[in-house]
Amino acid sequence: MRGSEFAELRAFVTIAEQGNFARAAAHLRISPSTLSQTIRELEKRLGVRLLNRTTRSLSLTEAGQRLLARFKPALEEMEEAVRDVQNLRVVPAGTVRLLAPRKAAATLIAPHLGRFATEHPDIVLDITVDDAVIDIVDEGFDIGLRLGELLEDDMVAIKLGDDLRMCAVASPEYISKHGIPRDPSELNKHRCINWRWSGRRGIYNWEFFKDGHWMSVVVNGPLTVSCAEMAIHAATQGVGIAFWTESDVRPLIATGKLVPMLEEFSPHFPGWYLTYPRQRDMSAAVRAVIDFFRARNVPTLAASKALAPA
Questions:
Q1: Cβ neighbour number for residue 9 with a 10 Å cutoff
Q2: What is the CA radius of gyration of the chain?
Q3: How far apart are CA 155 and CA 136, in angstroms?
Q4: Reduced to 3 states, what is the DSSP secondary structure of residue 262?
Q5: Is residue 98 within a helix (H) or strand (E), and if so which, with residue range?
Q6: Is the same domain home to 297 and 240?
Q7: How many domains does the chain have?
Q8: Which CATH number do you get for residue 253?
Q9: 175 and 200 share one domain
Q10: Given its phi and psi angles, is residue 59 left (phi above 0), alpha (psi -120 to 50 degrees) or beta?
Q11: Which of 30, 33, 163, 206 could cross-link to 268 by cystine, CB 3.0-4.6 Å?
Q12: What is the pTM for the complete model shown?
């Protein structure tokens, strides 16, 4: 149905509801002559008369009554559908799809789900936890969580939580056999546990800060993983040196199962960001999710002070 045909049918229903052309024209905010022409076009297109008109009265023909009975409920349903969609911009309701890596989901999202459900009972959070680097827009997600180094230029990014710090660690058994590297350049003489982002072929290069500059180090070793837990467990068993976020290995450092190294070359860097596509008309539900988790994860360390690769 073309737009002009829909406008003609809507005009017809309005005339039937209002009872005369003058009130119907005022309701539609058009002139009575324009409305009269619209109805003539509709009757011409259908090939039947819909209205009996005199200077004093207006009534529906049998064809008009049949058309009104069939089209008015459909029009009301369409108008209700439009209002329902428009309400999404005002009332936080509906489904919001969120993509998050396991670590971000566990530390930034999961602790606040109870309060979110209480504050926003009409929003359904559809959360996918996946460490793979997935295109948020192509896969139909509304919001994603990403590390700063994986952000895309055409996406909006909001800092969540504190800055992170990478830490090179090895077990006491490994150190007793192979010693401790004193400089990142010495890592090529050691057995290291490589990391690969899930869904990517390339190996992650270890990054250190030395003499005012970031340096990228390619390491080698007997194991490559895409699972943090596996890398850390392997390090505790003496497989090699692991390079992971300090918060994940700190408990094992405290118990003596792992020993940190190269700490002077490992400053903090901006960590997790909540990211979403730039859009002019964001739904109220998506905005509510963004605002809620942003408020619950305000950084205590200024991201602007963190050192990050250029």
A1: 19
A2: 32
A3: 10
A4: coil
A5: strand 94-100
A6: no
A7: 3
A8: 3.40.190.10
A9: yes
A10: beta
A11: 163
A12: 0.65
| Alpha helices, H only, the chain | 3-18, 21-28, 32-46, 62-87, 102-104, 113-119, 172-178, 228-236, 246-254, 284-296
Residue with tokens 């799809």: 97
Whole-number Å distance between alpha carbons of 178 and 260: 14
Closest C-alpha among 102, 117, 309, 109 to residue 216: 309
Task: State whether residue 151 is helix, strand or coil.
Answer: coil
Integer CA distances (angstroms), 169 to 85, 181, 224, 243, in order = 53, 11, 16, 6
Distance between CA 13 and CA 11 in Å, rounded?
Answer: 6
Q: Which of 263, 304, 309, 260 is nearest to 163 (CA)?
A: 304
Non-local (6+) Cβ contacts of 174 within 8 A are 191, 235, 238, 239, 240, 241
Query: Which structure tokens are listed for 87?
Result: 């309400």
| HEC profile of 192-259 | EEEECCCCCCCCCCEEEEECCEEEEECCCCCEEECCHHHHHHHHHCCCCEEEEEHHHHHHHHHCCCCE
Beta bridge partners of 207: 216
71 or 239, which is more confident: 239
> What sign has the CA pseudo-torsion 249, 250, 254, 255?
negative
Residue 233 lies inside a defined structural domain of this protein: yes
**87 φ, ψ to 5°?**
-65, -25
Among positive and negative, which fits the CA dihedral 25, 31, 32, 38?
negative
